[in-house]
Amino acid sequence: MGRLFIMLAASSGLLAVAFGAFGAHALKGRLDNYALGVYQTAVDYHITHSLALLAVGLMCLWYPQASLLRLSGIAFAVGILIFSGTLYVLALSGLKWLGAVTPLGGLALMLGWGALAVAAWRLPAQ
């Protein structure tokens, strides 16, 4: 799972940088301030949680038996997709109903952090 999480993190990080550059260069003047803010929030959470997913992937290589690390990685991946994904679509399309789906992604991100915290607590001391 560690290699998979690292691959997903690298791909997600690449996309976060690409989306950030697209937003900074192609969307200014095309979106209002609200939509640009929503888009920037998506980019911020996307890159931050790509790094978190990378950390979890590395930890999974060292502690492959830690099931809570796997849960954390899955939750981060799902959270990025739902949280940032719905915000990107909301900003670009104006589909306001997506705002009701976004918190599910936020819950997945919180689950990822919580599972990571408990997993870290349970890891053997070095």
Strand content: under 5%
Q: Gap between N and C termini, in Å?
A: 22 Å
Class per helix and strand makeup: mainly alpha
Low-confidence stretches: none
> What is the helix tally?
4
Name the overall outline: elongated
Whole-number radius of gyration? Answer: 16 Å
Short recap of the structure:
The chain is mostly helical and 126 residues long. The protein has helices at residues 2-26, 33-62, 67-93, 102-122. The two termini are 22 Å apart.
Describe what this molecule looks like in 3D.
The chain is mainly alpha-helical. The chain has helices at residues 2-26, 33-62, 67-93, 102-122. The longest helix is centred in the middle third of the chain and has 30 residues, at 33-62. The two termini are 22 Å apart.
Comma- or semicolon-separated keywords:
4 helices; 126 residues
Blueprint (SSEs and pairs):
Blueprint: H1 2-26, H2 33-62, H3 67-93, H4 102-122
Helix pairs in contact: 1-2, 1-3, 2-3, 3-4
